[in-house]
Amino acid sequence: MAKKQTEFKLNKRDSVWYHENSAPVVCNYAKEVCDIAILPIGAIEQHAGHAPTGMDTFNALGIAEKVAAKTGAMLLPSPMYGSHPHHHWGMPGTIPLTYETHIGLLTDIIRGAAVAGYNKFIIISAHGQVSSTIVATHKLGIEGLFTISSTWYDFLRDNKDVLEDYMWHADEAETSVGLYLYPQWIKMDLAEAGYGTALIDSKWKIAPGQSAKPGMLYHFEGTFGLPEKDDLDNGTIGDPTKATVEKGEACIERVVGYYNGLIEELKEKFPCGINPLGFRNPAGYSGSANFEYDKDHDSKGQLKK
Questions:
Q1: CATH number of the domain that 247 lies in?
Q2: To the nearest 5 percent, what fractions of the chain are helix, strand and coil?
Q3: Which of 47, 81, 212, 292 could link 170 by a cystine bridge, Cβ 3.0 to 4.6 Å?
Q4: Which of 1-10, 78-87, 152-161, 250-259 has the lowest mean pLDDT?
């Protein structure tokens, strides 16, 4: 009979990170403590001359670690690479995954974590890749895997509250977050403003983090930008010279608070061991008409009292 671990650095786990615990620990933790898993995702992408190519991933990691420490959720290992909107492709320094590759990566990670007993999944993205994350989320839903996909700056909706400008790229917002989370990798002496060419007027398009108004399209609902490799002079869209540590801290702490509130609601409404969707359908599309709800749900999928 295998030996069982009885001493832990945290509450029944050694780390907030899945990969820093043993398999028995991550499985028992999902069964006994918390079955919510967070998957932080970013990208490897040029962020001008003053910020690292891993900036988006570092932002996701920093947010996710704060949320996991507060809520008890388990953190799944982050893939460093992401998918990219059309205008990022071919830009030196950026390493994009195809949409199909990224969808497969996300769905496989969450399927694997479900085998360990996790029932609720939250993707925290710090990069514009909804073209794949939304598809992955709904593919997983068809399989009975409750998944929430979010992009931190759209979840925050700062709307020029903390920041002077809306969030774009390697700009005031991202550089402020970098100054707060990993200042050792930010070179403010190299920061300079830069701009891209907009193909439609801004009144028709929601900027990242902006509160929407009537008649506005989401910023990834069209091919609204020219290829960055031809259009950007220095890799920046926005003005990183406006960045401060204080702005970064305010943005991060606010969005962490929103994630904490969301997770606490999930924990209260769906205790450990409860799958909110109430079924598992490994057959995917072909099995969607034939699944049966589990013992915690009635024949209409409602959670039993």
A1: 3.40.50.10310
A2: 40, 15, 45
A3: 47
A4: 1-10
